[in-house]
Amino acid sequence: MIEMHDVWKEYPNGTVALSGISVKVKKGEFIYVVGPSGAGKSTFIKLMYREERPTKGHIFVNGFNIERLKDRKVPYLRRNIGVVFQDFKLLHKLTAYENVAFALEVLSVPQRQIRRRVRDVLEWVGLGDKADMLPSQLSGGEQQRIAVARALVNNPAVIIADEPTGNLDPDTSWGIMKLFQRINDRGTTIVMATHNKDIVNTMRKRVIAIENGRIVRDEPRGTYGYDD
Fold this sequence. Notes:
Number of strands: 10
CATH architecture: 3-Layer(aba) Sandwich
Number of domains: 1
Distance between the termini: 31 Å
Radius of gyration: 17 Å
Number of helices: 7
Largest sheet: 6 strands, mixed
Structural class: alpha/beta
CATH topology: Rossmann fold
CATH superfamily: P-loop containing nucleotide triphosphate hydrolases
Oligomer: single chain
């Protein structure tokens, strides 16, 4: 599913974000990536969907060799990866329906299929009645549900989430995490960077801890392990 072998990432300014990372993620796993701010968590997950390229090492995601992947082939990689961000990254001039549909339109999916799939996924995340609303008319939790629906609409094998509850209150965060659990229950692999200690300690999934660009802990039913 996902494999990294001795992966290094150094940015042009000389910052070394990752140093010799090796890890395997199996199909259907639910993984939390934790660690202090600036530890390399975001770089770690960005490499998985080729937002960043490794400086050295090998990365394989769903059969794609990331470091050798040509730019024109990146869309093919991302067809099987859904990404959810802390700040939602919705298009503010588009309705909830249009934001989700856009993920399929760029793949040239026929409109009839788009209408069916978007309506189905909006119902699935509990927002079937909000399809015609703009992001500004929705709460933060609702906007994140739209972002999850957009990530899910193409039935990806993997969903990668970067601090998806970072801008949400505790109750709303738990609602979003229950949604991610339902997605994982369907067999979708989830890799999530998070600072949410309560969620990590309660849900007890596999935890990969990164400090100073290195994996320092990899536990099957881990805890958060930090005070922040």
